[in-house]
Amino acid sequence: MCGIVGYTGFQDAYEVVINGLRRLEYRGYDSAGIVLEQGTNFDVAKTKGKVEDLVAISKNLIGKSHVGMGHTRWATHGVPSDRNSHPHISNNGKIAIVHNGIIENYDTIKTMLTEKGFVFHSETDTEVLVNLIQYLMDINADIDFPTAVRYALNEVYGAYAITVMHEDFPGVLVVARLGSPLAIGLGNNEYFIASDASPFVEFTKEAVYLEEGHMATISLEHGVDIRNIKDNVKIIPEVQQLKLSLEQIEKGGYEHFMLKEIFEQPKSIHDTLRGRLLVEEGIIKMAGIWDHLERLNQAQKITIIACGTSWHAGLIGEYLIEEFARIPVEVEYASEFRYRNPIITDKDIVIAISQSGETADTMAAIKMAKEKGAFVYGICNVVDSSISRVTDAGSYTHAGPEIGVASTKAFTSQLTVLSLIALKLGKHNGNLSNQEFMRLITELDALPKKVEEVLETTNDIVKDIAKHFIGAQNFLYLGRGYNFPAALEGALKLKEISYIHAEGYPAAEMKHGPIALIDENMPIVIIAPKQGHYDKIVSNVQEIKARKGKIIALVNKGDTQVASVADYVIEFPETSECFSPIIASIPLQLLAYYIAVYRGANVDQPRNLAKSVTVE
Ligand code: M6R
């Protein structure tokens, strides 16, 4: 969602801020803006559109300032427009703000300020906040700028990450966070602010991640002064050493981040397994689980909460944990779970899955589960993300930064972590024999190689198949067992980036409704590995063929039965059914990618979508 970049130091603030905004483009946005300190004035440029549109109207600001901030906006209050873009400036022209999140009580404050004579030029909640800061300074002559920001934040509720500048306080940036992430990069005589570390990773490896409910006043003169927003208590910052490298967040020769990330999967899965899966010793070592193994094993039930792709991973997690550990599992959309008063007790385990670790609904669901006494285990990709900090224990997926909005490598790494958890629990509680455990972990260990193979052997084939479906209006994705959630995920990938309507179904459900849609214009992707209800799938394929549907079949190497009926065939290597979604997902990701590319869609930043969904 929205992105913030701020800078104070010796470099050209325009270049730092604009390049930083480019790095945050992946978060998803519809407008962009920048404000620079110009002596005792602000220079502001903002526009609906992309960062490059902003550059086109703001080149005159190059080299003009060493202090500034910028923003990419994902519209919440008010349509994407020049007026609603950030920064917003207070009525007296002295205070500038950029903001991520939502101020829920903005309407009441706006009414109060309007009565006091304030005028609003946008439909945003953000403009209300900046004028509230001005108002508090107007009526309290003795408070300084950071104090006014703090007072204002104590008046609002909702979620925010903000950066604020004041013309009368040159060189000072005031930042605060509640519900939206904000990192402060500590350079040598320069400071950076950003929604994540990617805008400043080339300048410094030292960062402070602002904690929930904290604010900081940053200046070259006084450094970084962190306070608790509520009561102004001084906080000693914990400085983190960034492991992120520039290479990880660049395209590395690929046309899109999504393609790069699809091709990174042999490595990302390997990284997920590294140090955890010790095949020769016959053990799975997971620090996050080890201390809590008994609690996990004694759980009356496990509830998995997540959104989007992570929810699909959760469904496969349900199959894995129930099959191998024999513990009942429920999978819930975090957004539903949190609003429906679910039965959760202190005997329950909740597993929260989130690539970004910032998804607002998942965060809120975790808080609720904790209040009900559950033990919450997190599976996150982003190290030190909000979710990884609020959970009781957890495992990182270690897939590396995922920049493409459509999740690919994070998904297969989530499945890999869930496989490790299920096998570890199953072995520990005796449901899995040693022999079966050894067979499965040997297969798990072989996955990076098989994923490499499937990338090599299917990329060109899938690219070619994709050409035939550029004009498709609808798609059906079918799978059974473990591959039903894989079908859901394949459909989600296609609709997210190509804007083609796509539905995933359990193959057997087809005859209970979706079969009515099938005619010669309906492409149907069917996942049909040898293991896992193959005979039943063969019947489903015949039913589709009889109605002239266009079949794209994902089958194991050497398959003849399904392959002979299908219009297009994609072969992938055999593995146990429980791991087949990991392998089958690769050609599904490629299919969505190539169709979207042929349709000229913006693959990495699909319309309306955001990488971290930090609003509810
Ligand atoms: O960061 P999270 O895993 O919590 O995000 C959840 C969803 O927003 C996310 O998976 C979304 O569906 C992606 N765009 C999928 O490609």
TrEMBL record:
Q: What is its EC number?
A: 2.6.1.16
> Does this entry carry the keyword Transferase?
yes
Q: Where in the cell is it found?
A: Cytoplasm
Q: List keywords of the entry alphabetically.
A: Aminotransferase, Cytoplasm, Glutamine amidotransferase, Repeat, Transferase
Main enzyme class: transferase
The active site of this protein is located at C2, K611
Residue span(s) of domain Glutamine amidotransferase type-2: 2-221
Principal location = cytoplasm
Describe its assembly: Homodimer.
Q: What is this protein called?
A: Glutamine--fructose-6-phosphate aminotransferase [isomerizing]
The gene designation is glmS
